[in-house]
Design goal:
Layout (H helix, E strand, L loop, with lengths): L19 E17 L2 E2 L8 E18 L2 E18 L7 E4 L2 E12 L4 E11 L18 E11 L4 E12 L2 E4 L1 H4 L5 E5 L2 E11 L4 E12 L2 E3 L2 E2 L4 E13 L4 E11 L3 E15 L1
Amino acid sequence: MGWAVDLQPNDIVAPLPNKNYVTISYLNTENSTLYSNGSSVSRAPYASPVIDTQGAILRGARTYSLGELPAVTYIQLPYGAVRPAGSLSGLSSDSGIGDLTIATAIWPYHNRVTRTYLGLAGYLISPTGSYSSQRAFNTGENRFRTDLQLGFQTPITSSIDGMIAVDTMWFGANSQCGLACTGTTTTASLTQKPLTTTQLGPIYRINEIFTVGASYFFVAGGATAINNNYMNNVVNTQRFLLSGQAHTPIGRFSLQYGRDMEIKNGFVQTRVLAVRLMKEF
């Protein structure tokens, strides 16, 4: 299942041109109970499922100007592992390279004096990751994905900004979906409807060093079909994400923690933890 592009505090702020950044991230997530149309699933093998995912992500970014508009392009490559446990412990784990992301953002409006920004970003996610139709869980998705995101940020008070971003993700087909789709080694074709996410919340600048933020997410859409058979599994998820940043001589450290608050279909996410270091070169 695809997810939104989560933003960190001040990601919507237009960057200065002609700068290079490298970001190293560590992500850890845990998913548990499977839900189907709002009800928990207890049939085998979903009595007490646990899905643990860990990954490291390397991102290189370059800022520049397109005419008079600020812009940035980055390339991102993950490496990670996904391990089913609990009642899913009989299923195979996977580790390896994840799906490569290339993204570009521009700012049609940016005013540093009033701290008001409007940004537009496009993402292309390529199926470079480890994948096998004989596994239910993989580090790659074996399909192309594209995402278009619009973000707006403006002051609420002298030290608090408000941000809102909306993105929609489109999915290519996975013609080699096996165990994850059918529960057997028989391959099938997986298609998925677009998935739209709205995220919004405050950003509080404590001082020159520390910034914190909180985001609420509403995710909708993304129903799947297997061999053109509609699965009636629309995503309808609410979740939160808390963020903290510290600007140090070493670089910008970021810490994010969140979880699902309400879910209609899929494995509920009980924890997402992200630690990042971004360094300018």
